[in-house]
Amino acid sequence: MSAHNEYAAFRSNYTKQWRHSFNASYTIYNLAFVWENDMYVKQSPSSPAARVTSDGEHNRILNGIPDWVYEEEMFSSNRALWWSPGGKRLAYAKFNDTGVHTIEYSWFGEDQYPTTVVIPYPKAGTPNPVVTLFVVDAENVTRVMPVAIPSSFNTGDHYLATVTWVTDERLAVQWLKRKQEHLLLQIYNFDGTSWTAGESLPLDQVNGWIGRFSPAEPVFATDMSAYLVMSDGKGYKHLHSVVAGKVHPLTSGPWEVVDILKVTDGGIVHNSSYYRMGCHGPGVPRFYLRNNVDGTEVNVLEDNSQFVELISDIQMPTTRHGTIKLRDFDIKYQLTLPPGFQESKKYPLLVDVYAGPGSQKANHRYSVGWSSYLASTENIIVASFDGRGSGFRGDKLMHAIYRRLGTYEVEDQITAVREIMKERFIDKERIAIWGWSYGGYVTSMALGAGSGLFKCGMAVAPVSKWEYYDSIYTERYMNEPLENADFYGSSTVTARAANFSSVQYLLVHGTADDNVHFQQAAQISKALVEKEIDFEAMWYTDEDHGLGEHVYSHISHFLLRCFA
What's the pLDDT score for residue 283? Predict the structure, then answer.
C-alpha cells in the first residue's frame, strides 16, 4: 500500500522464496517498491517510477528488502522500508552482504542437471551483513539522507532492530549490539538538512538477552510518549511508558505482558466506545464486540458455530493441564487425552516437544492438529512440557539456558516424562518423543541422553550443531563460539550418537531447507553410521523447512510401528 493507503499494488504470479519473502508481478499505484534490489517510488498512477538507489546487486547489496538472516530472525518480514505517517518521507535499510559466507544446495527440479541455490547466510561466529539506514524525501528522491549509527555502536558489530516513525520529522530506531545484551533506543529529529540524534534510552540485560525473542518495537502516542514491553526489576516483561527519557512502569506482578495492541490518541487509557475481544481458547475461538464502559457484550462477531456443528458428531480429545513442582522451579504440562479416557487403562505416550528459548507448548489455546488425530483415532496420549528456557513466566526461568542450549531444556523433558510415568494410565513400555526444528534438536538430544525412557523418536528438520545455524539466533542465546567453546562443544547431537543404539530413530529433512540446512541432518546421519547404528531417514526433495503434509503420514506410520 502507499503511505496514505490511497493506492495499492495488486500481486500476481506469486512464487515463494524464504519464510516471509516471495517474487511476484505487480500492478503498481503510488507506492514504494523494490525491483532487483533497488528502491523506487511512484507518486501517482500516471507518473513514472522514480529510482532511489542504483547499487542493488543480487546476494551482495539489498535496498529496502532484508537479506536472509534479517528477514528470518530480526524483522520477520520481507520489507525493510517504512513510510512516515504523512507520507512525506521513506526510511529504508541497505544490507551489504559482500562479506557474508554463503550456503549452497542443489535444486533438483525436472531438468537434466540440478541447479545450485546460493544464499549469503552468516553462521555463528562468522561475518554478519553490514546494515545502514537512510531516509529519502518522497517528493524529491535525489534527497537521500543517512541516519547515523550512535557513536557507542561504531566499534564492533551491531544490528538494526526496529524502525518506528513518530512524526514526519521524528524517527525512533533501536540499535542492538551483536551480543544482544545491550540495546539503544535512539530518537532522531529532522533539522531541515539532516537527521540529528536526540534523546535516547539504553537498555541492558545481564545474564540473558534483550527481549523475549528479538527486541519489542516501541509504540508512540500523539504526545510523543512511548510505550515499551520490557523486563522490570523483578525479571518480568511489563508495560512501561517512556517520557523525556525516563521510564515509568505501568504494570507489574509475577506475570507478563505479551504485546501492545494499540495506543490511541489519549494514550494507553482511552475513551473508545467499543472494542473487539477475541477468545482463542480453551474452547472454539469466539470474537465479541463489547462496551468499553462496563464490558458488556454488544454483539457476537464470530462464534464459529458452523465448525462446532461440523465436529459435533466427531469424538474429540480432551485436554488436561497441570504443574510438576520441582525444588527450584515448576514444569507446566498439557496432556491431550483420547475420547472416553479412562484412568484405569494403559495408553502409549508421545511427547510433542519444541522447548526453544521463550517458547510455550502447554497453553489454553484451542487447536486441532496431528495431536488431536493421534489421541482421537489411535488412542495415544500426547504430552507437552514447558520447563527451563520457556517463555512468559519471567526471565529467571527463560534465561536459565543462556549460553547453554541443549542442557536444562532437554533435562526437563526427561524429568517431566519420569514424573508423568508415575500416573497409572501411562504405558511405560511405549513412550516416544518427536519435534520439529528446535523440537527436532531436543528430540535428538533427549534420545541421545541414554535415559532408557523412550522407545523411539522422530526428529524433523533438526539442528545438530549450533555452529551450523545462523548468527542472530544462535548468538542471542549462546554468544559467539570463541566466547563459549565448551557449551558449543557439548551441545551437539553428533557427540551422543553412540546412545542411539537403544532407540528407534526417524530422521526427516528437506533437501532445500534454507533455514536449518540439510547439512545438519547429514551430519547426524554420518555420526550414526560411524557408530554402526541403524536408523530410518526420509529426505524430501526440493522441500524447505516447512516440508509438506506427507511428513505426517510418514511419522504416523513410524510411530504406530514403534507402539505395535
Answer: 85
Q: Would you place residue 272 in the very low, low, confident or very high pLDDT band (cuts 50, 70, 90)?
A: low
- The answer, as to whether pTM is greater than 0.85, is yes
d(CA 480, CA 474): 8
pLDDT for 44: 75
The single residue of 67, 395, 470, 513 carrying the catalytic annotation is 513
- In this structure, which amino acid lies at residue 113? Y
Neighbours of 214 (CB within 10 A): 21
- Contacts of range 256-265, beta carbons closer than 8 Å, 24 or more positions apart: 256/392, 256/393, 256/394, 257/229, 258/229, 258/392, 259/216, 259/229, 260/216, 260/219, 260/227, 260/229, 262/219, 263/219, 263/220, 263/221, 263/227, 264/221, 265/221, 265/222
474 vs 315: CA distance, rounded Å: 42
pLDDT for the residue 280: 85
Contact 39, 99 (CB under 8 A): no
Are 159 and 178 in contact, with CB atoms under 8 Å apart? Answer: yes
Asked whether 520 and 465 are in contact (CB, 8 A), the reply is yes
> Do 490 and 465 touch, CB atoms closer than 8 A?
no
Tell which wins on pLDDT, 150 or 274.
150
pLDDT computed for residue 396 by the predictor: 96
Burial of 92 (C-beta count, 10 Å sphere; 0-12/13-18/19+):
buried
- Select the more confidently predicted residue: 290 or 68: 68
By DSSP bridging, strand 504-510 and strand 456-460 are parallel
Which one, of 480, 486, 328, 469, lies nearest residue 407 by Cα?
Answer: 486
The answer, yes or no, to whether residue 5 has pLDDT greater than 70, is no
Distance (Å, whole) CA 67 – CA 20: 11
Cβ proximity of 405 and 466 under 8 Å: yes
Please state, for a pLDDT cut of 70, what percent of the chain lies above it. 93
pLDDT computed for residue 303 by the predictor: 81
Contact of 90 with 138, CB cutoff 8 Å: yes
Count of alpha carbons within 13 Å of 546, Cβ hemisphere only? 7
Q: Which residues pair with 134 in a beta bridge?
A: 92, 146
Task: Specify the DSSP class assigned to residue 149.
Answer: P
158 noted as active-site residue: no
Nine cell digits for residue 68: 536472509
Helix axes 408-420, 438-447, angle to 10 degrees: 70
238 included as an active-site residue: no
Contacts of 180 (CB under 8 A, 6+ apart): 159, 209, 210, 475, 476
Which of 158, 240, 517, 545 is catalytic? The answer is 545
From the candidates 231, 437, 444, 464, which is the catalytic residue? 437
Q: Among candidates 213, 203, 212, which has minimal Cα distance to 174?
A: 203
Query: Residue 296: how many CB atoms within 10 A of its CB?
Result: 9
273 is known as an active-site residue: no
